[in-house]
Specification:
alpha/beta; single chain; nine-stranded mixed beta sheet; 13 strands; UDP-N-acetylmuramoyl-L-alanine:D-glutamate ligase
């Protein structure tokens, strides 16, 4: 079943304690597409790029079932560029450069061929852009998932609250959940945020896993302990892509199935961090994913004798 993904297709320059790359393909929509495409096609991309975005990357996405009719190519400008440096813990980073370039003029148009999509993944963008895409859809998707960050809470809180009323699942990290809700306790934060509109809330905690909230239910998904983490960039978007891709494949948006979808998302994210950019995601096979999921099962499977 088709999934619309809205987000950036960009270039990143990344430095971590394990190495650096000066220019590599990135962007939220790129990571979501590579992850979700393992489970369902077509992935219907909505984004904007400049004249410097590589044709071979476009061809690779097409080969994997990604439709690019909704990707605007601006011939006289450059693509969005971000540069960052990660600290030794790999959870915190400093942004060194943000060049909006074409993103400054991003006004997405949903192609007619995308109408009727059952799943919508709204990547981390200006809430006004996210709302614009929702309003352009003639039929409401079966599930709308939205990612956001503290930057939009700082400068566009009213617009963010408006779009929250129209979505089903919100993805944020623990700091963002506390900022949005004004609550220190994540349980209280989840209740406050779900009152704003989302039926489900996923709070990402990086290497410490993720929490799924729905009504009075909560589920914790661990992160797989990895020997080496080269680059966390895009891990959250890869998580989102695996999550929505699995839900689209199974056509089941119940809380119980979302538990599995979170594990699937975590498994895909665990691949993403093993190489710079989306390079590792281009290599993995179904067998790799199945094997990684089996590792997650072992991670949380235990026998206990009650005393």
């Amino acid at each position: 079943m088709s999934v619309i993904t809205v987000g950036t297709m960009a270039f990143d320059a990344i430095e971590t304690p394990f190495g650096k790359v000066d220019k590599i393909v990135g962007g939220s929509a790129t990571y979501v597409a590579y992850a979700a495409g393992n489970f369902t096609t077509p992935i219907q991309q909505i984004s904007i790029v400049g004249n410097d975005f590589p044709q071979e990357e476009m061809d690779e996405l097409k080969r994997r079932g990604v439709q690019l009719e909704g990707v605007e190519i601006v011939p006289d400008k450059k693509s969005f560029f971000w540069s960052g440096k990660y600290h030794i813990d790999m959870n915190s980073r400093d942004t060194l450069v943000t060049d909006l370039n074409v993103l400054a003029d991003f006004n997405p148009v949903v192609p007619d061929s995308y109408q009727g999509a059952e799943f919508l993944m709204l990547g981390n963008l200006d809430p006004k852009i996210q709302l614009s895409v929702i309003n352009q859809l003639k039929t409401r998707p079966k599930l709308i998932v939205l990612d956001t960050m503290n930057f939009w809470m700082d400068i566009a809180l009213d617009a963010l609250k408006e779009v929250l009323k129209k979505i089903d699942v919100l993805l944020v990290n623990d700091g963002e959940a506390r900022q949005l809700s004004g609550e220190v306790s994540l349980v209280k934060a989840a209740k406050a945020i779900m009152k704003m509109g989302p039926k489900f809330l996923i709070i990402k905690k990086g290497e410490h896993g993720a929490l799924l909230f729905h009504e009075n239910h909560v589920f914790f998904a661990p992160a797989l302990p990895l020997e080496e983490v080269f680059d966390p960039t895009g891990a959250g978007d890869t998580f989102a892509g695996g999550f929505i891709g699995y839900l689209a494949k199974t056509q089941d948006i119940s809380f119980e199935n979302m538990k599995t979808a979170i594990i699937v998302g975590s498994a895909l994210a665990s691949f993403c961090v093993e190489k710079f950019g989306p390079n590792r995601l281009k290599e993995i096979t179904k067998e790799d994913i199945d094997s990684r999921l089996a590792e997650f099962v072992q991670l949380v499977n235990f026998d206990i004798d009650l005393v």
